[in-house]
């Protein structure tokens, strides 16, 4: 019995001893390379197949070694290489990994490089001489350049492009011989190719032409017309005695006996041009002076005229302008402190005239029969437009007119005479009117029955007690607020989109077309739009 007990006790102690053996006494046997990355011109990651290390991508030609960038191995293993170590290129290398239990594994491989390239081409070349660039044309091993200017003694390479990895025996900024030179290109495999540079210099030019000439006087430029060896200019202003040579364009490399800035007389002047080969050609200058000028007394109005492209002739002060220049003006748009538009009577081609000046109290446009557009925002008390029968647009807002006769202006499409002192106006002959603005006057009556083309009628701020728009069926805008209307019938005006009728104290009912809605209506609360006001 004692013997059995002793045996069981020993077995139990042995079992407990085995169970309590520390884990740290176990040895790991992992000895693998998990990842290998080397670096040179860039990073290369190895492919691991058993113990064979392969790099699928070849390194640049000439690479002799790489550096280990990343090396991952089994846990608790060691290795005979470290990050930062060098590995030779082109010969076999071995990396040994040792597991914790002492087992080793050797990994081997070879890193290869690309073969040397054979390319040795020049693909582009530019030389420069006298601050001008010349691009070479490459044909085989010959490079031809455009001819350099006569007298050129030196050229240099501005840009040179050769095949990748190739080198040349000449570089940017190197001087090349004018009489011929060559460039040898060496490939990566040390093979060479020589290119011949074909460079020539032009012979001296015989060109001795004047291609452009401009003279100036009184701040005005005149361009010459060249016919053979005669230089003809437009007429100069009346009174001109001298001109200045402003621009002179000659054949390349030619010279002249006159220079820009030289003074020329009105008659008897010549220009002799000498070519590069010393041959010459003489040009005769023909100048004429124009007739007298028209006095334009108002400074502001005169300045507007002088800015017009049609005006090329005026005296030194600009006070006088040649009549035929005034006759060419078609448009005048002016503002400022203009007191008189004297001179406008010569503008017989004028089609558009606009003057904004509170200092202008009178205007004579009787000779401007071509006018189609006339706008005068001034201080006129009267205006005669009976001869301006071509007018389409007439704007006379903000004057002091008490009357205006438009009976002969039958082509008018727009008439604006607002903010004046009119007590009456007859527009019965103006049957083409599409817009009529007469607001802020003293009108007590207005007949628009013949103006059947009207789209817009603005007669607010008058003293109208009645207004018949029954024939104006094209009306889209009707502004009649601030009058004395007692009734308004717009039942025929089915195109109306804007209606302003407020401030007519006795107007409470506006008759509209049954079922038609006006888009925008400005009215008093007491005013009603209805199909019937009876």
Question: Can you tell me about this structure?
Answer:
By secondary structure, the chain is mostly beta strands. The strands form 9 sheets. It has a 10-stranded parallel sheet with strand order 30-31-32-33-34-35-36-37-39-41, with helices on one face. The longest helix has 18 residues, at 2-19. The protein is flat and about 120 Å long.
Q: Summarize the main sheet.
A: 10 strands, parallel
Strand order in the sheet with the most strands:
30-31-32-33-34-35-36-37-39-41
Write down how many β-strands occur, each being a DSSP E stretch of 2 or more residues. Answer: 42
Q: What share of the residues lie within helices?
A: under 10%
Which structural class should the secondary elements be placed in? mainly beta
Write the SSE topology:
Elements: H1 2-19, E1 33-39, E2 43-45, E3 47-49, E4 52-54, E5 65-73, E6 78-79, E7 86-88, E8 92-98, E9 104-110, E10 122-129, E11 132-135, E12 137-139, E13 142-144, E14 155-162, E15 167-168, E16 175-176, E17 181-186, E18 192-198, E19 210-217, E20 220-223, E21 225-227, E22 230-232, E23 242-250, E24 255-256, E25 263-265, E26 270-274, E27 280-286, E28 293-295, H2 299-306, E29 320-322, H3 323-326, E30 331-335, E31 352-356, E32 373-377, E33 393-395, E34 414-416, E35 435-437, E36 456-458, E37 477-479, E38 488-490, E39 498-500, E40 509-512, E41 520-522, E42 528-530
Parallel strand pairs: 4-9, 13-18, 22-27, 30-31, 31-32, 32-33, 33-34, 34-35, 35-36, 36-37, 37-39, 38-40, 39-41, 40-42
Antiparallel strand pairs: 1-2, 1-5, 3-4, 5-7, 6-8, 8-9, 10-11, 10-14, 12-13, 14-16, 15-17, 17-18, 19-20, 19-23, 21-22, 23-25, 24-26, 26-27, 28-29
């Amino acid at each position: 019995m004692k013997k059995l007990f002793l045996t069981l006790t020993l077995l139990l102690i042995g079992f407990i001893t085995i169970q309590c053996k520390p884990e740290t006494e176990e040895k790991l046997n992992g000895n693998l390379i998990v990842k290998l990355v080397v670096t040179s011109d860039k990073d290369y990651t190895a492919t691991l197949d058993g113990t064979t290390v392969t790099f699928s991508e070849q390194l640049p030609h000439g690479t002799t070694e790489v550096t280990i960038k990343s090396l991952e191995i089994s846990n608790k293993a060691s290795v005979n290489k470290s990050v930062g170590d060098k590995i030779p290129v082109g010969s076999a290398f071995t990396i040994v990994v040792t597991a914790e239990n002492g087992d080793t594994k050797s990994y081997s491989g070879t890193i290869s490089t690309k073969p040397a390239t054979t390319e040795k081409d020049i693909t582009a070349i530019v030389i420069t001489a006298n601050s001008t660039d010349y691009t070479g044309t490459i044909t085989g091993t010959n490079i031809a350049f455009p001819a350099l200017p006569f007298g050129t003694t030196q050229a240099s390479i501005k840009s040179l492009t050769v095949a990748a990895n190739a080198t040349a025996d000449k570089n940017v900024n190197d001087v090349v011989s004018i009489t011929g030179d060559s460039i040898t290109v060496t490939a990566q495999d040390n093979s060479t190719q020589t290119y011949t540079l074909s460079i020539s210099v032009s012979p001296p030019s015989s060109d001795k032409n004047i291609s452009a000439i401009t003279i100036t006087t009184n701040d005005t430029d005149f361009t010459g017309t060249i016919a053979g060896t005669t230089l003809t200019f437009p007429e100069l202003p009346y009174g001109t005695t001298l001109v200045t040579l402003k621009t002179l364009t000659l054949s390349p490399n030619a010279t002249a006996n006159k220079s820009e800035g030289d003074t020329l007389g009105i008659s008897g002047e010549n220009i002799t041009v000498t070519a590069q080969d010393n041959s010459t050609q003489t040009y005769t200058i023909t100048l004429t002076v124009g007739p007298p000028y028209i006095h334009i007394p108002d400074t502001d109005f005169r300045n507007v005229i002088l800015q017009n492209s049609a005006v090329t002739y005026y005296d030194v002060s600009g006070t006088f302008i040649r009549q035929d220049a005034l006759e060419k003006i078609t448009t005048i748009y002016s503002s400022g402190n203009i007191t008189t538009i004297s001179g406008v009577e010569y503008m017989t081609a004028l089609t558009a005239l606009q003057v904004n000046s509170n200092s202008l109290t009178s205007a004579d446009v009787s000779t401007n029969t071509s006018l189609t557009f006339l706008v005068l925002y001034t201080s006129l008390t009267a205006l005669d437009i009976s001869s301006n029968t071509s007018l389409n647009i007439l704007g006379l807002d903000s004057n002091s007119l008490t009357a205006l006769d438009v009976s002969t202006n039958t082509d008018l499409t727009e008439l604006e005479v607002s903010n004046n002192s009119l007590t009456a106006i007859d527009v019965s002959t103006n049957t083409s009117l599409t817009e009529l603005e007469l607001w802020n006057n003293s009108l007590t009556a207005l007949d628009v029955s013949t103006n059947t083309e009207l789209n817009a009628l603005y007669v607010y701020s008058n003293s109208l007690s009645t207004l018949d728009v029954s024939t104006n069926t094209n009306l889209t805008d009707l502004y009649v607020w601030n009058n004395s209307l007692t009734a308004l019938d717009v039942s025929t005006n089915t195109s109306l989109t804007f209606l302003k009728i407020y401030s007519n104290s006795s107007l409470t009912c506006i008759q509209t077309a049954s079922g038609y809605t006006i888009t925008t209506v400005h009215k008093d609360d007491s005013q009603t739009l209805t199909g019937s006001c009876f």
